[in-house]
């Protein structure tokens, strides 16, 4: 890759993370998923090497770089077959929000641990009755003296079982106007009233998803992140990193699947030439490669804008990058499985399970359709139907 798009430091980071990912590889991730375990060893080694916190401020133990670097880490781990989904949440969303808006105490308490991997934080915004329409969330925070009392429900929240706390997006009741305003709270895993139940997913992944019930969860004033009135701003600051990182997740998985298919197509021979010589096999693989590269370009653009402080410009690019990466990932995985014929569905080759996993990049954290809505309205100025 040229130094025009990525510096020598970026390329060195790619190579170093790729080497770490290769040491663990797909077998490690598959074993964790089958045993229902968090990829603890890889998480903690990546943390110790400074990769998990590469975007977090140096004064709190981070690498002092940005989303461009964090995205490289996740993409390369994924390309090696061992992605760390919780990177999307813990250092990218939660780390960013706390670093940018948290109080000094919150920064001291959380950032060094999020950076070295000794602490993990989940992120809960999705609600059963709100879904893609996050304006409709009803998890509500009420003041009671010095405390906050939270009530509500969340769904599909990843990694709550292994996370030390979950950053919960709620709304405060404004006593003067009766209006609800978004706000973020750090809820410790064992807080009384904070219940979780595991959702059985058709996904082979180490990270589990949970439905959460917040039933009069009492939190100290210090659990509110930053300012009560700046909740929307804080939320948006975390959403661009989330989209950029989901793009990295999709590109990494797509690259992993494509590489397996290319290896196979070079050697599998049932006629005179290896199957990769047939254009019906070669061209879709070439297209998948092009689409993954294009998605990465948009991801790099989004990360650059974000790291340069252009939150608005990054918003459009991050959405587009997530869209492009989700689609490229789904297509690459589909073609990879097909290239292997019957072996595409065997345990031995391990590609079949990526069919469901790749759909995550299309659905979460914001679905393909909601990005198309965003681009229709924000970029093209078309009218809204909802
Ligand atoms: C593996 C996984 C991990 C997840 N992890 C987390 C997490 O850690 N934290 C968290 O908060 N959430 C998490 N989520 C939730 C995820 O962000 C949501 O599933 C996603 O935002 C979609 O919401 P929904 O499932 O309620 O779908 P819905 O909003 O019900 O949408 C269903 C379908 O309708 C379409 N649709 C909805 N509205 C419109 C419209 N206006 N125009 C066109 N089409 C529309 C959608 O595109 C979608 O195809 C996770 C989900 C998965 C699958």
From TrEMBL:
Keywords: Flavoprotein, Oxidoreductase. It comes from the Bacteria. Pfam families: Acyl-CoA_dh_1, Acyl-CoA_dh_M, Acyl-CoA_dh_N. Residues 7-117 form the Acyl-CoA dehydrogenase/oxidase N-terminal domain. Its EC number is 1.-.-.-. Residues 231-373 form the Acyl-CoA dehydrogenase/oxidase C-terminal domain. Residues 122-217 form the Acyl-CoA oxidase/dehydrogenase middle domain. The keyword Flavoprotein applies. PANTHER family: DEHYDROGENASE, PUTATIVE (AFU_ORTHOLOGUE AFUA_7G06510)-RELATED, MEDIUM-CHAIN SPECIFIC ACYL-COA DEHYDROGENASE, MITOCHONDRIAL-RELATED. This is Acyl-CoA/acyl-ACP dehydrogenase. It comes from Streptomyces poriferorum.
């Amino acid at each position: 890759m040229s130094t025009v798009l990525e510096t020598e430091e970026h390329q060195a980071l790619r190579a170093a993370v790729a080497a770490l990912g290769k040491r663990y590889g797909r077998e490690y991730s598959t074993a964790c998923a089958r045993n229902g375990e968090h990829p603890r060893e890889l998480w903690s080694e990546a943390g110790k090497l400074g990769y998990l916190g590469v975007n977090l401020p140096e004064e709190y133990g981070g690498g002092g770089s940005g989303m461009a670097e964090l995205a490289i880490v996740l993409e390369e781990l994924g390309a090696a077959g061992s992605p760390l989904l919780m990177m999307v949440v813990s250092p990218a969303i939660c780390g960013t929000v706390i670093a940018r808006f948290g109080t000094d105490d919150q920064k001291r308490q959380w950032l060094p641990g999020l950076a070295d991997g000794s602490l993990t934080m989940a992120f809960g915004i999705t609600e059963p009755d709100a879904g893609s329409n996050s304006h409709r969330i009803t998890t509500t925070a009420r003041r009671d003296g010095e405390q906050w009392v939270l009530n509500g429900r969340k769904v599909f929240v990843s990694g709550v079982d292994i996370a030390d706390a979950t950053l919960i997006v709620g709304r405060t009741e404004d006593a003067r106007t009766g209006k609800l305003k978004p706000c973020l709270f750090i809820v410790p895993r064992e807080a009384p009233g904070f219940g979780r139940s595991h959702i059985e997913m058709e996904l082979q992944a180490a990270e589990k998803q949970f439905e959460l019930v917040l039933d009069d969860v009492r939190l100290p004033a210090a659990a509110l992140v930053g300012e009560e009135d700046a909740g929307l701003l804080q939320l948006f600051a975390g959403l661009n990193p989330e989209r950029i990182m989901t793009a990295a997740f999709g590109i990494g998985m797509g690259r992993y699947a494509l590489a397996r298919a290319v290896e196979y197509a070079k050697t599998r021979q049932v006629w005179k030439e290896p199957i990769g010589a047939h254009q019906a096999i070669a061209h879709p693989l070439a297209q998948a490669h092009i689409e993954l590269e294009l998605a990465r370009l948009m991801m790099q653009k989004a990360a650059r804008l974000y790291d340069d402080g252009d939150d608005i410009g990054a918003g459009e690019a991050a959405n587009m990058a997530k869209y492009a990466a989700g689609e490229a990932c789904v297509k690459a995985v589909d073609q990879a499985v097909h290239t292997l014929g019957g072996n595409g569905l065997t345990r031995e080759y391990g590609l079949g399970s990526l069919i469901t996993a790749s759909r995550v990049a299309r659905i979460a954290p914001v679905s393909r359709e909601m990005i198309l809505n965003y681009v229709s309205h924000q970029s093209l100025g078309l009218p809204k139907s909802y």
